[in-house]
Amino acid sequence: MRMSYLNYKNMNIKLLLLFLGTLWIKSGYTQNAEAFIPGELAIQFHSEKAFQDFLAQEQQDIRFVSRVSDHLNLHFFKYDNSTVNIDQLVKRLNANPLISAAGQNFYVQKRATIPSDEFFNNQQSFDIIQAPEAWDINTSAPEDMVVAVIEGADISHEDIAENIWTNAGEIPNDGIDNDNNGYPDDYWGVNVEDSTDVPIVDDHGIAVAGIIGARGDNQIGVAGMLWDLKMMIVSSNLSYLKIIESYEYVYNMRKRYNETNGAEGAYVVATNASFGQDNRFIDENPLFAVWCDAYDLLGSVGILSIAAVNNSKVNIGEVGDIPGLCPSEYLITVTETDLEDKLKAAYNPIHVDLAAPGRSFTTDLNDSYSLFTGTSSATPIVTGAIVMMYSYPCQDFQMAARSESSQTALHLKRILLENVDQLDELAGMVESGGRLNVFNAMQSLQSFYGSPKGNLGFIKVYPNPILSNGLLSVEYQTPETTDYDLKIYDSMGRLVYHHIIPGICSPKVIEVPLDRFQIGTYFMSIENINNIKSTKFFVR
After folding, report:
1. How far apart, in whole angstroms, are the C-alpha atoms of residue 43 and residue 75?
2. I need a labelling partner for 484 at 20 to 30 A (CA). Which of 115, 185, 370, 498 fits?
3. Residue-level pLDDT at 503
4. Exposed, middle or buried: residue 427 (CB in 10 Å: 0-12, 13-18, 19+)?
5. Which of 382, 374, 225 is nearest to 309 (CA)?
């Protein structure tokens, strides 16, 4: 086992020598000049003896600073940036037979998914729900995926304009209902007040839209929960009838999408309702039951609806709330917590599903940005989380979301609620007992449709021992959404099999054909640059 590991390390050293020698210098590859660190060199030697021999030679232009890696024979040197021609120095060093590779030290691009948006540091709510960690899994929705915002918004705002849905079935401004859905020219969504696609411009709606889908990593403004998606703006004055008409529009567009296998309509997966009726019970007005039925209707075609509850800290089971009391399985009701995870708004252990932070810096009128608070702010965070889950980039999941739309909607709701951060403050106050954690939800989704997440290691390797012409099954788990390598070495330490395990949508079981394996003992590792776990199996 130990010999195999050492041989494996030596092989990696050889690969790195090849990489450094060809990539840094000998192929003529150059890094961005701004990324170089003036005065600093990285030099790798063929061996420890080569390093010592090099130090024994008189070196006029460079000086040794420190060892970087004993195993890789990599060392840190400095040079005088004001007097040395770095190109000539690097060329000379790489011609030295003692040196495997040499080059300027440089900064790599940070791969943490933190957007460059101007006001992102004001969006503390996203840190609380671990959105930056979830963004390492995904920041973009499939091209045809849509979320419906059931209120007005400024679709020309600099930070959401690129993420506004357009109706591919309509020719804009020709006065004709090209897609025969009852709304001529509903190209930019629909204003159900006048049946045009000119939305009602509303500071409440644009704040909601920005939280869900402000363009991310574009160096302006803020970031939405998902950076690249399409938002269908269905605007009205929020009267009861217009709310129902809005839901009807969304339902018909998704139903048509389902019936035509995506050729027509719109793939709407969620609606956001940051509005409601305080202190009312369903049986107080027969129209409320119809409102509730709208969520079952939407759910029947695969749409989850996310709705805010009362901003007052009251028990809605005692004082009433619409749509908070609607019994639909396809409805997710949201209350508000502050940045300290303290409950700020309505509650009920049956009718309120979860909490989310209710304080967001988001888009406002006239290309501006402002603070937006309350359950109206918490709800689009959950809506964005649902759309992020729907956007999980795994083919099996995407096929299921389209072919088993209603079942998938309920499955995602269950995953969302089962993976909240449990808080004493919310125990017995909301059904889930916790506050949204979108990263937990995404990891749980990954474990369901791919390999489980946990401490790096092998779960099961079978059969073991195995016949030389057999098929070895490998079950495993990884802690990160980054790529891993599965490698197999023979008893002499020679690499005989290599498979890259994708960090996202990785298979639950990897099957390794052994038709070319000889009888003997083999060592298998699963690894990345930070971690490695090994096991062994026998071929007979």
Report:
1. 5
2. 115
3. 81
4. exposed
5. 374
